[in-house]
Structures are given as C-alpha cells and as structure tokens.
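Handout, section B. The chain below has 187 residues.
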Amino acid sequence: MPGTKSFLAQEFTRFFEAAWLELPAAAGKIVLGVGDRKELREAGWKAYDAWIRLANEVTNAVYSDPIIGEVTARMMESALRMRQVGGAMAAASLSNLWPSIGLPTHGEIVAVRDELLELRQELAAYAAGLPVPDDSAAADAHDAPEAVRKRAQLNEYRGSNSIGSGANSNSSAFGYLARLGKRHVAA
C-alpha cells in the first residue's frame, strides 16, 4: 500500500507533534492563564513517551542491519581481547615489581588472611574455655572475641612477646589500645 508510512516515520511524526506542537501549546496556555498544570504535565509525559518510542525504534532499525550488527560484534570482541592482553601484560610486568618495592604479593596476602583466621579461631576456642567472672563480661560470654577483649581490659593486659618481638614489636601499643578498649590495632 503506497499510502502507509513506516513505523519509524509514524513514531517520528508522533514525537514531532508532541514535542513541537502540543507541549509548547500547553505551556503557552499556562502563560496566558487559560490552561492548568495537569494539561502541561500530560503534554510533557506524552512528549517523553514519544521520544522513548522514537529512540527505541531508531535503535531497533540500526541494530537490525546485519552490517552494523557484525561491526558492533567485532568491535566488542576486539575490545575484550585487548582487555585480556592488557591484563596479561600488566601481570607480567608487575609480577617482579611488587617484591622489589617490598609490597606483598597476592599469595602472601592470602597466607596472612589464612593465618589471621586460624588465630581468630584459636582465640575464640581459648576464650570459650576460660571461666567467666560475674561482672560485665558475663553478659558477653556468648561472644568470645568480645569477652576476651573485656577480660583484657579488666586485667590490665599489657601484651606479651608472642605478639611481636625485636625492633618492630607492637606489643606495648597493643596493650595500651587494649586498655583503652580499641577493637582494631593497626601495626
């Protein structure tokens, strides 16, 4: 049928009518004092909906073209490959740089995390075996790390040499912060 328009042309016509005719007319009526805000709001939403439908139809028309679809697919594939190559190059070039600077490697960080988890479990097991006095720490007996911290505060715990030794010992700082009730000690 020669008299019918394509769906894209219909959407463009609806958008043009809503955005360039109905919306300014509704705004002009408000300026003149003849219209109301409800009419302006409806005209604005109609223009917005027409814009969304037009953008959707243009996108559908563009991506339904096999040439554009293939070019887009190749560009995305190339970008992903370049990302993989960049990641491999960064890993290869920085793998020897981290130890030379003195920064820990991923394996070392994982090992430290595992050791901390084991220490936390040992501390909880130790705290669960201690007798709980009839003071404020008794209420927290179910929370083993909190109970140990409170007992350390009550007993004026000052840290031992097993926490650290030598020039980098932080045992006195740990004892001081434990007495103050700090939960975390950054070394």
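Note. Residues 156-174 have pLDDT under 50 and may be disordered. Compare this with the example in section A.
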